[in-house]
Amino acid sequence: MEPLTQSEMMSAVFHTMFSGPFEPWLPLGIVVILFATAAWDARTGIVPNIPLLIGGIAIIAGRFMTKGFPDAIVHLAMAAGLWAVLWAFNEFWYRFFQKDAIGMGDAKWTALAAATFGVLPCVLAWFIGSWVAILWIGLSYLIRRRISKVYFAPFLFCGLMVGLSLTKKIIQLPYPYNFF
Questions:
Q1: Angstrom distance (rounded) from CA 79 to CA 30
Q2: How far is CA 3 from CA 10, 75, 119, 165, in A?
Q3: What is the pLDDT of residues 92-125, one digit of tens each?
Q4: What is the pTM of this model?
């Protein structure tokens, strides 16, 4: 068997990372929406609702048309459940500290990602995105640039891309850490 060329390898990576209903175009379109809304959040501090709503309708309809009603309902429930957990955490935080902990735009952003890719990449996105944000704040502090507020969707996007790479086996971790 001949080794794969670089273009064949990139094609395999592209297909693996964005497989799903209407693969790979619908999940790739959702990634574009997630990137655009994260970039908008970085610029304005607001995650726009309309692109997220359009993406959510598109991915659930795509799942319904390709994999059937049960798959669409499961992914819709995962998205709604993850959104509800984030909302409940924010509500709990607000009751005790009188400030929001999480922007609800980030929660809706995460719900769209969960409907498209599942819960595990989203959990990894929050974990990895948090560490990237901490590094960003630390570097900003070192160069004496004060940050008063962190808009989190860009860090979520970075975390989601790493999470997808880990869960879709594009990046293989060494033995004790390869639990995906």
A1: 14
A2: 13, 37, 34, 22
A3: 999 999 888 888 899 999 999 999 999 999 999 9
A4: 0.82
